[in-house]
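Researcher: Structure prediction, please.
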Amino acid sequence: MTPVLERIASEKDSGIILAKVNTRANPQTVVKNSVRSTPTVKIYHNGKVVESFVGGRLEHQVRNIISKVKESDPPVPSVKLSSDPKQRFAQGKSHLKKGRGFEATIALRDFKPSEPMADQAAALLPLAQFLWDLDDGDRWTGKRKIDDLYHAFLDDVDDRQLTRSIEHLQTAQTLLPKADQAGMAKVIAGLELLISKK
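Model: Predicted structure follows.
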């Protein structure tokens, strides 16, 4: 199954990001995603599973599934937001503290520069997008040391240990390629803002 998925994902303009999870090394992810046997394939769009299947498939079957997903409308975000910018900002922070990157991204993006909290929302957005990317598989690197640190970060977020979680991202930042370190610095700055008393 892996060669078929890798071939399809590597095609020019596929629009697919393939993320593989080692089920033995990531038991929490297995439980969270109700994986009972392998291979299990889940297709995400807008942070939600839009299609999944268990077991092997022929290449033409996989292509048909992917075509169906691409042709369908993406799921509509089901996040209810306040029209008041201060309340929307508070909603975004609340979602972040619970590790809900998708919901936090929806709440924190599109602040007008004149709105209260616009600067703080912009500073928190990289953290929200990072959490969302972890949730839908876009941020996993395939490098065990970095991915283990990301798992430890998510465990701390789940346990509401946000202060402790910074260390994992700081260590991961030193292991990332130079081109990715500035982006991780923004994620860390967003986490520091989130746990500050401001």
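Model: The mean pLDDT is 89.
Researcher: Thanks, that helps.
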